[in-house]
Amino acid sequence: MKKTSFTSPTSGDLELEEMVLEVKKYVKKEPDEYYNLIIGTDSQARGANGKAKIDFVTAIIVHRKGKGGRYFWKKHVEERKMVLREKIYLETTLSLATARDLVPKLREAIAPTKYDFAIHIDVGPLGDTRDMIKEVVGMVTGNGYTAKTKPESWGASSIADKHT
Prior knowledge:
34% of the residues lie in helices and 32% in strands. The chain is α/β, with parallel strands linked by helices.
């Protein structure tokens, strides 16, 4: 049985290299357009039989500006309790790990001049996460990526959230 890394509503289960080929084909269909490439992670705590469980979903979105997009997602499960700060740190770390694996392969497949890349972090100025914004944005920018927070972090708070 094939070990799946990502799921696509359009293409089904894909390994990383297959996902990169799908992104390349999508961009090649309309090569004169400009794209946003986004990675975002969201989490949801659940309990079952007295055991803590947290589902983390990382979404990779290819947005053709003004013309829709495609997305892929993968799930990571932690079977322990976490405080909010630890969950947000792990969400950010999972997005960074995905970027570390994905971005070099994408740069080989698609010219970096064709897209903007950002990591969407599920923190914002109005909720319990407001005190963490500088920390997690610093994690992302310190790794050389652009960070977006709420209300601009829809990759994490909408797309990834659909599958938590």
